[in-house]
Specification:
This protein is of the alpha/beta class and 753 residues long. It has 32 helices and twelve strands. The chain has a ten-stranded mixed β-sheet, with helices on both faces.
Length: 753
């Protein structure tokens, strides 16, 4: 086991490969051993983050076959060397000379295995080593001198199929005795030239996972990118037509100012058949097509056609370029072309995974769009393309074929878009498809955080389908079904489904049954509750506690529609008969209504205010003690309740024909709650309008009498007991507005600011 053996310094002796040793070389163990079947070589510098993960992943391999680990430290200062000392059989220092090949070859030269496997410290060997072990054990019967393994490059940190990953056939296994060594200062590689395919073996089930590209395009990866680009630029200065260097620049230089110029330079080098064009021309044209689509370059179609003409059998053309072309056709609404091209990409993906075709070509670059992530997105695009071609059965079939395991955010959003589009245009049953989708997105895969993000997108996008303006647009477009109806299939799983089920029925009893299943009112589409309430459903439900905060929240969510005000008209005259739960709900409705109404329509505005006054008249005595509601104690109430108290008193005065008292109470209510100024201004204007209409409709005799009374009263002091008694009489109150005008002295001119 790693760490169980001691170390011995060799001083100036020769190491096991016969090269001069130095005091910094450490070899684990003192006694000679048989030649190992495999040497694993690693170079590292400051890789504390990942080095032990890499070395631990090798342990099953070391237990399965005779194996040694040879490591070169190129200048670690973070404790990486201490980790290496616990695992390495040979560990030595190699001063960094800006040349990756030099460092790697130094490791090979110190190896003693029959085969040599290169692994980077930010890689780890997949647990399934059966193919690799079988290959190595049969080395005496084999002719191969080199072998490739799958390097799985992760570009996102979740390391899941839904994340962005790219597989690459990396030439990592060689027989050192052949003299094969690395070349290239950066993106180093073995210089291999074999005439017979029998000398090469592709281990397509042996995987090296690699996370070194995660964050490479972020700020954290800037130093590494700039280091790589500087070395590549040096090579290009020496030879501007070096296709290997050009492709390395393309792979490392995304976002560089001259990136598109380098793309064009590389394409021209391929067209001119510069050295290496036959091997790396396909991946270069793949990069060119991708850059052309991203940057809207005019050469897009030209480069796609060039790849198809020159490299029709390459997976870079069949998968990556084919994918790019399928999306291009979607972009220009060529849905039939998108389907045709996308279908050929799926066939190429199947061939690639079966190990058929030009697999060796993948030793020169990675496929970018062959991962499950991109396949899922292409299936979504093709589902929508079939739908727009009115091939609804194929659209559903394609949607159902998507593996919904560990979907990412883009998958979730676009899957819902495709499903809703098919729902509104067809009569197919999408229930099983949606249920499977929902069950999968609610699993914590690859992480709990990823699940929560997916659910958030689901709630946002599905809820939008319930919006009245959305449904109205669907009606105007003549859709077969509303999008929201898709979610009725989830009625037993989530409140979104309950909302859809309520909208889909006209039975008040069924609506109430569905409302009884709601566990989280925040998740219920408010359109479902509105439909139930306007249909006459009882609410809140009998026997179920309903909290004041829930009432306020639900009513607040209805403020964007006119339902709130239609409910206010019903509440304006209701007596809640000691039903405090219904009263709590009514309070939430009228509070939301009076605070959000725009006061444009007189009839509805009066209904809103009357409903508010009616509810406060019944709610306040239930909520506060009688002593708290005495006029002298009202100031202790919260501002809205203070205004509610005055508003209830004002409407009682108005109903008793006491317009002056009504105006006075409104003014006092406004003084206690400035937020209600728009409502008070509206009520004042309505009062003045009513008074003006009454004066306009009064008989000349009544107006003359009112004028006489006004003149008579003006002859006395306002404090005169007779005047006070007269003004307090019910008869006077009924004609006070004709005598005194539109309550001007009570309103006192401008309202408080």
């Amino acid at each position: 086991m790693p760490g169980s053996l001691s170390y011995a310094g060799l001083g100036g002796k020769l190491d096991r490969a016969g090269f001069p040793g130095s005091p910094d070389i450490l070899i684990k163990g003192e006694t000679a051993m048989a030649q190992p079947l495999l040497t694993v070589g690693i170079i590292f510098k400051n890789e504390l983050r990942c080095l032990e993960r890499c070395l631990k992943s090798l342990q099953p391999l070391r237990e399965a076959i005779s194996c040694e680990v040879v490591m070169a430290d190129t200048g670690s200062t973070d404790g990486s060397r201490e980790i290496a000392e616990r695992y390495a059989d040979v560990l030595f220092d190699f001063p960094w000379v800006n040349d990756f090949s030099a460092a790697r070859n130094a490791v090979i030269n110190r190896s003693s295995g029959i085969w040599y496997l290169t692994i980077d410290s930010d890689e780890w060997l997949d647990p399934d080593i059966s193919e690799l072990v079988s290959f190595l054990r049969a080395h005496k019967r084999r002719k191969e001198i080199v072998a490739t393994v799958v390097q799985r490059n992760y570009l996102t940190p979740d390391f899941s199929p839904s994340g962005e990953l790219r597989d690459f056939l990396a030439l990592r296994l060689v027989r050192p005795a052949t003299g094969l060594r690395y070349v290239g200062t950066i993106h180093e590689h073995f210089m291999v030239s074999v005439d017979s395919q029998e000398l090469v073996r592709n281990l397509t089930h042996t995987v090296l996972h690699h996370d070194g590209y995660v964050g490479l395009n972020d700020e954290a990866g800037r130093e590494k990118r700039e280091r790589n680009l500087a070395l590549i630029r040096e090579n290009l200065e020496k030879d501007p037509h070096d296709l290997t260097a050009l492709m390395q620049y393309i792979e490392s230089g995304t976002g560089a100012a001259d990136y598109n110029d380098r793309i064009r330079q590389a394409v021209e080098a391929v067209k001119s058949k510069k050295p290496g064009w036959a091997k790396i021309g396909a991946p270069i044209l793949r990069y060119a097509a991708g850059a052309a689509r991203d940057s809207k370059l005019p050469e897009l179609v030209e480069w796609i056609e060039l790849a198809e003409e020159w490299f029709p059998d390459s997976y870079f053309t069949r998968i990556d370029v084919g994918y790019i072309d399928a999306v291009r056709r979607w972009d220009i609404h060529d849905y039939e072309g998108c389907i045709q091209r996308g279908s050929s990409v799926f066939q190429a993906m199947a061939d690639f995974r079966a190990g058929k075709g030009d697999i060796v070509g993948l030793a020169f670059s990675t496929l970018q769009l062959a991962s499950p992530r991109w396949e899922k997105m292409l299936r979504i695009i093709l589902s929508r393309s079939y739908c727009r071609c009115k091939e609804y059965g194929k659209s559903r079939e394609m949607l159902a074929s998507i593996d919904c395991t560990a979907l990412n955010n883009d998958h979730t959003r676009h899957f819902l878009g495709a499903a809703m589009e098919l729902q509104r245009n067809s009569d197919l049953d999408l229930g099983p498809v949606l249920i499977n989708f929902y069950d999968e997105i609610c699993k914590p895969e690859p992480t709990e955080a990823a699940m929560q993000e997916r659910i958030g997108i689901f709630l946002h996008d599905s809820s939008s389908a319930f919006a009245p303006r959305y449904r109205l647009r669907e009606d105007e477009e003549g859709c077969l079904r509303h999008d929201y109806s898709l979610y009725a299939a989830l009625s037993g799983k989530t409140e979104i489904g309950i909302g859809a089920a309520i909208l889909e029925t006209e039975s008040v009893q069924e609506m109430e049954e569905w409302l009884g299943k709601v566990e989280n009112w925040d998740l219920l589409p408010i359109a479902g509750l509105e439909h139930a309430l306007l249909s006459g459903a009882s609410f809140p439900l009998p026997g179920r506690p309903f909290y004041l905060e829930e009432a306020d929240e639900l009513a607040g969510r209805m403020s964007q529609t006119d339902t709130l005000y239609r409910l206010s008209e019903q509440i304006a005259e209701q007596d809640f008969d000691q039903d405090f739960q219904r009263l709590v709900w009514a309070r939430g409705v009228v509070l939301a209504a009076i605070q959000t109404y725009d006061w444009q329509d007189g009839k509805t505005g009066m209904a809103v205010c009357r409903a508010f006054a009616n509810v406060e008249r019944q709610f306040l005595p239930e909520y506060y003690t009688a002593e708290a509601l005495l006029p002298e104690n009202i100031s202790a109430l919260p501002s809205l309740h203070r205004f509610g108290w005055y508003c209830a008193q004002a409407f009682q005065a108005l109903d008793g024909q006491d317009a002056v008292g009504y105006a006075r109470l409104l003014r006092e209510g406004l003084a206690s709650c400035k937020l209600m100024k728009p409502a008070v201004e509206f009520l004042t204007q309505q009062l003045e309008r009513q008074q003006e209409e009454r004066r306009a409709n009064a008989s000349p005799e009544l107006l003359a009498l009112a004028e006489q009374v006004r003149m008579l009263i003006s002859m006395y002091s306002p404090d005169d007991p007779a005047v006070v008694a007269l003004k307090s009489s019910a008869a006077y109150q009924q004609v006070a507005d004709l005598i005194e005008g539109p309550a001007a002295h009570e309103m006192g001119g401008r309202l408080p600011q």
